């Protein structure tokens, strides 16, 4: 069995070493395609792969067509919108993610960006504090839960809304569960976004939802840029000089945001929520273990194209 690690942005060496250990201990062969610059290189590398580990790499119908021996793709990370799930299912390929492995890294970044923003991007002027502010967690999954844990340490009043997570689960963490996204945005001065990008959530963070946020509002996005309706967010920020947008996923309209909203807009230059040594190692090794479990025992625990 051949397991291909195909990463345009490679894992840290220590993570690759860990992946290799898992794969070779199972008696499989590991192949590496790192820092590729052309899709043709990926199409060539997948030809004889039985399993692929990826990060933000795109696995579309063309790649799946080229990968004749492929049984499984594991996205080392949480979001799997870079994989064409319908095409994978049509090719009888199992797709998994590695939930939870990078959540603390993303949560720490979210809180770090909040501090950075309330302290006026460390420009030497007097800012405000997070303590006592109402934080709304939009989606109480792996990242959302870690954000709640850290935010409580800051003394924030923590609220959450999740479309699928039962309220009791949220409340047992000492977090106030609300009934709708609308209620969350109306209640909280700071909202941290953790919804996945799905057909339902794309463009869903819009003017109607954001306009009712309390004075001094701040939206922190460590989820995906696709969930934001950028044109409507720009309109809102033009109308509300008190509104800050802080994101780990650079908007398509980055230049316009930067020019119009200096002092209340910040984007990381490159998505870096999961970019820690710990998350890299955890997600890579989890992906390797999941591949071995699937190929040896048929374990489909983290399958996302059911
Ligand atoms: P997760 O799957 O653990 O949690 C997602 C949560 O969203 C679930 O609890 C689910 O019930 C909820 N949800 C789904 N649809 C919803 C909706 N319409 N309304 C409200 N809640 C909804 O995922 P996670 O690990 O917490 O990650 C969340 C997202 O963050 C990922 O989908 C990914 O896009 C993004 N992410 C970004 C980075 C980064 O580097 N910035 C890293 C990891 C994850």
UniProtKB/TrEMBL annotation:
Residues 123-252 form the D-isomer specific 2-hydroxyacid dehydrogenase NAD-binding domain. The keyword Oxidoreductase applies. GO terms for molecular function: NAD binding; oxidoreductase activity, acting on the CH-OH group of donors, NAD or NADP as acceptor. Residues 22-305 form the D-isomer specific 2-hydroxyacid dehydrogenase catalytic domain. Keywords: Oxidoreductase. Gene3D superfamilies: NAD(P)-binding Rossmann-like Domain. It comes from the Bacteria. Belongs to the D-isomer specific 2-hydroxyacid dehydrogenase family. This is 3-phosphoglycerate dehydrogenase. The lineage of its organism: Bacteria, Pseudomonadati, Bacteroidota, Bacteroidia, Bacteroidales.
